[in-house]
Design a protein that fits this description.
Elements lengths: L1 H17 L14 H7 L2 H7 L18 E2 L12 E4 L25 H6 L3 H17 L4 E3 L22 H16 L4 E7 L12 E3 L2 H8 L1 H10 L3 E4 L3 E2 L2 E2 L4 H11 L5 E3 L8 H6 L10 H13 L4 H16 L15 H14 L2 E5 L11 E5 L25 H7 L3 E2 L1 H18 L22 H10 L2 E8 L9 H4 L3 H16 L3 E8 L6 H6 L2 E4 L7 H9 L34 H8 L5 H12 L9 E3 L8 H4 L19 E11 L2 E10 L8 E7 L11 E7 L8 E9 L5 E3 L4 E4 L2 E10 L2 E10 L3 E4 L20
Parallel strand pairs: 2-3, 3-4, 4-6, 5-7, 5-16, 6-9, 11-12, 11-13, 13-14, 14-15
Antiparallel strand pairs: 1-2, 7-8, 10-15, 17-18, 18-21, 19-20, 19-24, 22-23, 23-26, 24-25
Helix pairs in contact: 3-11, 5-6, 5-13, 6-8, 13-20, 14-20, 21-22
């Protein structure tokens, strides 16, 4: 009888633990998280680890946003509301049965922000979008993305910053600080090695531990430890054989143990295969959440295969995440924001991030220009930003190039404009016979180029003072650019050649603007045009920002955040990227009609067409190792169109008196920068380190610090301070599983670009130092070494 009573008591306890709410009602505060966890049923604990889906439909509080965390009203736990970014608060501009417009600002692309080489400006951009989330009642921005531009064709490069981890990591940290200064959280993504969109849900990235540590994790480490984002999002892909969201070595051993970061980790939307494995790996929240995932986690909790200790830890992190939110704090949002003030930040950032490639005979700034002929379809269809769930590229307005010129008192040739408008409409009808789709995360088809006939061109030359040709390149989430997208079409080349010949014959100038998501072929442009300006994707004030630079209202001070190759195929990484792969959408649609998720359909379609694993699609071997971008081109003396960190100005700068000081491991180099030209301007100062070889092969140089001067008047000087740590100069020794600072002489190159050192300071390290780390994230297969980087 006694045994029966004991068993009944134990059963009652189990039932109450797993199903019945505690009688004592506690409500969440900043001081009682553990008490609230103790009061939660297991079902509630599992519920809070599962997201609440995409925000769609009339009943949703914020239509068009990414979703929310789950609320538990009885315990005073509200939802936190999540929105995509990075260069626009992605939210429906209209709502059912609501006359109000919910407009949000289209910011410049992350590439533009990085091209500014300006930490203060990056923070300013973050403040804008952080304020807009707060003002519209949202809590957390699912941005920034900090993955490296391993290939110039990656579809999401416009959402990323750079090929260099230091530039990417530090700019991202400043952006994060700006967003979070408004009480709005951030979610750093996509962790990690998410460098292609092709088959992104299944691709397995094979990368050496050295390249992983020095490149593909370093950017995240800087952004996480300096910026301190509230959360981090794991990526879709596999890495070293495991889905990143199911890899405890990544999210616990490296991120939390080694780096000391203590925020919430969430999955990307519908990432991974196994929800239980994700929670066990340290992913605290599964987004956007599915019933089968809840059931799997709940069953694992009940049978003990997922420990309550791990569940409670993830619940605690989730509650701490919620506690920080505007919603929990009861913030009374205005439902309107300072759109006018934010547009001014866009205009400034767009202009200051543009990179001047060429300026023959001081063609720019334009002087005495009263009328301009605009060529190229993109002149009439500017691209403000990239495409994707959080980068839709169509904010509530965009300033056209015609409007920008008009605001500066310059007339555009409207006869030419009418011809292009007709041509673009015809091309769009051809590309989209049933009309443009209402929403797409991938880049839309662009109109093919139009080459003017000789008589028309002669009339244009007669009636205008200058020719401006704009070329565009777009990309977006879910697919990568293809090889041919890098190269100019025959029509584009012909347009540059015939326009340049005609205007030059009349003694008039030709300017080319590149309104692009990333590098493209420029040889013909550089040969023919008098000036070339790379605008990237400068946001909703695009036309004003471009004209501000063309007229000299703003002196361009942007520098390239990536190396601009002459041709696709020149970079060592290009051989291991799906530049020629085209996904069979017909097979996908047939498979999708069979039921299941889009991801499952994509897998079935691919397997039907290609039963064998396909290189660069199912898996990608990073055979170039550490030699991406300028680390490859500069080390192996390969010619480029424009080097990393390059950018011209309307003035000139002198560097002098470089002096190094050390305070323990903290290093500081000061250099005097003087404006030696005739107009005011800013200069981005870059510090590269050339390290002794030691026991490992090394790149010829690596960026370790950078800083932007203030606006310097002609003749004015500023002492710029560059800071870094001694161990920042170390390389990763795989055999020792340690960062190795080799003994010997280090050259500190104070530079205007990766190939233009202005001052050189040397320092010596007397003794080799090792800093051990965990021997984790080993490649799951043997990775060959690209012959392009193999040393003789």
């Amino acid at each position: 009888m006694k045994n029966i009573q004991v068993k009944l008591a134990a059963l009652a306890l189990a039932v109450s633990s797993f199903a019945m709410p505690a009688k004592a009602q506690v409500r969440l505060t900043e001081n009682n998280v553990d008490q609230v966890i103790a009061a939660m049923t297991v079902e509630e604990k599992v519920d809070i680890l599962i997201g609440c889906g995409m925000a769609m439909g009339a009943e949703v509080k914020f239509p068009g946003t990414a979703g929310r965390t789950r609320d538990i009203p009885r315990l005073g736990i509200p939802s936190s509301y999540l929105a995509d970014g990075p260069h626009r608060l992605a939210m429906n501009q209209t709502r059912e049965w609501d006359s109000k417009q919910y407009n949000t600002t289209e910011l410049p692309s992350e590439t533009n922000v990085a091209a500014s080489f300006d930490l203060e400006l990056a923070q300013k951009v973050g403040v804008v979008i952080g304020a807009e989330l707060r003002d519209y009642g949202l809590d957390v921005l699912l941005a920034p993305g900090v993955n490296l531009m391993r290939s110039s064709l990656c579809g999401r490069n416009s959402e990323y910053y750079s090929e260099d981890p230091v530039l990417a990591g530090l700019i991202a940290a400043s952006y994060i600080q700006g967003v979070q200064s408004q009480g709005t959280g951030t979610c750093l993504k996509h962790f990690a090695i998410n460098n292609q969109e092709t088959n992104r849900n299944n691709n397995d990235a094979h990368v050496s531990q050295r390249a992983l540590r020095e490149l593909y994790l370093k950017n995240f480490e800087l952004a996480a430890t300096i910026g301190k984002p509230w959360s981090i999002m794991t990526s879709y892909n596999r890495a070293q054989g495991k889905y990143t969201c199911e890899n405890r070595d990544l999210t616990e051993t490296i991120l939390r143990e080694e780096w000391g970061w203590d925020g919430l980790v969430m999955t990307d939307w519908n990432a991974g295969k196994d929800a239980v494995a994700s929670i066990a790996a340290g992913n605290d929240m599964i987004q956007p959440g599915q019933a089968r995932q809840r059931e799997a986690i709940l069953n694992a909790a009940k049978d003990g295969s997922l420990s309550m200790e791990l569940i409670n830890l993830s619940v605690k992190r989730t509650l701490e995440f919620v506690l920080k939110s505007h919603t929990f704090k009861g913030y009374k949002y205005a439902n309107e924001t300072d759109l006018k003030g934010h547009s001014q930040v866009v205009r400034q950032t767009g202009a200051e991030s543009m990179v001047l490639f060429k300026n023959q005979a001081n063609t720019l700034p334009m002087a005495g220009v009263k009328s301009a002929a605009l060529y190229g379809c993109t002149s009439y269809d500017l691209v403000p930003a990239g495409m994707g769930f959080g980068a839709t590229g169509h904010g509530y307005y965009i300033v056209s190039l015609i409007e920008g010129l008009r605001n500066a008192g310059i007339k555009a040739d409207m006869t030419l404009a009418a011809a292009y408008t007709k041509h673009i409409a015809e091309q769009n009808k051809k590309n989209y016979p049933n009309g443009m789709p209402p929403f797409s995360i991938t880049a839309p088809l662009r109109a093919g180029e139009m080459v003017p006939e000789a008589a028309t061109l002669a009339e244009n030359v007669k009636n205008n003072d200058i020719a401006i040709i704009t070329f565009g390149r777009t990309s977006g989430e879910g697919s990568d650019r293809k090889r041919e997208h890098f190269f100019m079409t025959n029509e584009e080349k012909q347009l540059v050649e015939v326009v340049s010949k005609a205007y030059h014959a009349a003694g008039k100038k030709v300017v080319v603007i590149l309104n692009v998501c990333g590098p493209m072929e420029t040889a013909v442009i550089n040969e023919n045009a008098d000036a070339v300006l790379c605008a990237f994707q400068p946001g909703c004030e695009a036309g004003n920002s471009m004209v501000d630079v063309l007229t000299g209202k703003v002196n361009p001070s942007g520098k390239l955040p990536m190396t601009w190759a002459i041709a696709y195929g020149d970079a060592a990484a290009d051989a291991n990227f799906p530049a020629d792969y085209t996904f069979d959408m017909g097979a996908f649609n047939r498979a999708y009609s069979g039921g299941g998720s889009a991801k499952d359909a994509a897998e079935r379609a691919q397997r039907q067409a290609e039963p064998e694993l396909k290189k660069n699609v199912d898996y990608t071997d990073y055979e170039e190792g550490i030699y991406i971008g300028y680390r490859y081109f500069d080390t192996f003396n390969k010619a480029v169109a424009y080097p990393f960190g390059f950018g011209l100005s309307y003035t000139t700068f002198d560097y002098a008196d470089a002096q190094l000081t050390a305070n323990g491991d903290e290093l500081e180099l000061k250099v005097k920068v003087t404006n030696t030209g005739k107009v005011a301007g800013k200069e981005a100062v870059q510090l590269y380190v050339a390290a002794p070889k030691g026991t490992m092969d090394k790149p010829s140089k690596e960026l370790k610090a950078f800083a932007k001067t203030k606006q310097l008047a002609p003749g004015e000087s500023q002492v710029v301070t560059l800071k870094w740590n001694m161990m920042d100069m170390a390389s990763f020794n795989e055999k020792a599983s340690a960062w190795e600072l080799a003994k010997g002489e280090y050259k500190l190159l104070v530079s205007a670009s990766s190939v233009e050192a202005k001052q050189t300071v040397t320092m010596k390290v007397a003794k080799t130092r090792l800093q051990k780390v965990n021997n984790v994230m080993k490649p799951s297969v043997k990775i060959a070494t690209s012959p392009l980087v193999a040393r003789k």
